[in-house]
Structure formats: C-alpha cells, structure tokens
Amino acid sequence: MAITDELLRTLADIRTDGNILPPPSILVEKRILKGAEMGVVTVYPSDTLYLIPGDVALASFEDTLSEAWPASMADNNLYWPFRILTSFWQVAQMAAKEVDADIIFVDVGPNLGAIN
Question: CA-CA distance, 13 to 110, in Å (whole number)?
C-alpha cells in the first residue's frame, strides 16, 4: 500500500469523526524504515483527560480496610465508619474538583475485596 498524502489526511481525520470525546491530538507522519514507507500515527490524549494512576501496594491496604470496617461499627460514633466507607469516593471527589471533572471512572481489580 502506498503511503499517500490522501491516506495520511484520512488517518489524521479519524480524531474528528466524533467517536472519541474529548478528541485527542494526533500526529500523522510518513517515515521510511529499512527502506519501506510507513504511515506512523502518534496519539496524544486530550488535555482534558486526567488519570490517577493506581498502585499495586493498594492491594495490601485492602486488608487493613477490610479489618477496619467491622471494627469501626462497634463504636456508636458513625464518623469513623463513614470515613472508611467513603475514603475512595473522597479521593475521587478531591481529584475531580481539582480539574473540574464532570465524570469519574474507577477501574478496580477483578477481586471481591473491600475496595470493590
């Protein structure tokens, strides 16, 4: 397949077809690698997409959370259980407020632990 200007324009227009919101920035280039022409598409996430990376160490915190929840219910003061129950929601809300986010997606692991 020939890497023509028309092909490069078609690849660059993919971001504007309305299927990806907010649209990412896309850089489309023709390059030659080992004598062969290639169309290279580099996709940069939108400036309005924010991610909070997870950490494997969070799994070890899950045990602490699992133990803290039932123990906290023995107290008549519901402040501590409520704080435990809503801890992830609170972190997500703080992050959303920081960047003025409208939607929060949370990708959790496949287990059935306290975090899920």
Answer: 36
